[in-house]
Amino acid sequence: MSGGMNGTFRSGPLTLHRYLAVPSTPVSSLPGVIMCHGFPIGPLDARQAGVTFPQLIDRMANELGWAALTFTFRGCGSSDGDFSMQGWVDDLRAAIDHLEEEVQPNGIWLVGTNTGGALALSVAADDPRVRGCALLGARADFDDWASQPRRFLEHAREIGAIRTPSFPQAFDEWSRELRRFRPVDAASRFAPRPLLVMHGEEDESVPVADSRVLAEAHGSAELRVVAGAGHRLRHDPRAIAVLLGWLDRQRALMM
């Protein structure tokens, strides 16, 4: 069983840190999956964003036979830069390019938790290389952030997702980006490609209604509400079992 490899890739002028795993035994067709973390909840979270993802990435590679990649968005972990919505979208696009260059997968699937899921869908809708998407506790929109952009900017500074004192240089543009990407609109554009939408029934951060709205906008999504689960679905074994089962079915459909 081979472990994955830590490394970096470029997103514009920034260096982002990534973890990539490929199956230890050669497979005839190699699908690619990218896992996107959410917006940090606190300062520790900004530094440790996605820190448990490599274990899951190894499982995707070794148990399911995927080329699996995770990375930290700008402003998180040891990646360069400061958070902006457009910046995170650019980072995910760069990650797709990077996975294509590294392993030449036949098709790419995106998996995202929380904000990472909402942005994954926004990017996938306009990128034909993305064959399917799985969301864990994703938001339908960013209206709450967009309605109080200065408060949100302060919050992003407090938790360390924005580290440069002079950032953003154009506040109005930075705040406009919070409305530019609407996952609920992206869901209808992404159809009819496969979409899995999961949500914890007891999610205290994002209402379960957001996932229902996303599934409805798509039209043929698989919606799974996990009984008794909270916001961090990534740590719920039932949600992970559903996710891995879904990826396995995606792979079988591709053969």
Automatic annotation (TrEMBL):
Q: Which residues form the AB hydrolase-1 domain?
A: 33-241
Signal peptide segment: none
State the InterPro entries in the record: AB_hydrolase_1 (IPR000073), AB_hydrolase_fold (IPR029058), FrsA_esterase (IPR050261)
Q: Which SUPFAM superfamilies match?
A: alpha/beta-Hydrolases (SSF53474)
The record's section on Gene3D superfamilies has: alpha/beta hydrolase (3.40.50.1820)
Family note:
Belongs to the AB hydrolase superfamily. FUS2 hydrolase family.
Q: What is this protein called?
A: Unannotated protein
* UniProt organism field: freshwater metagenome
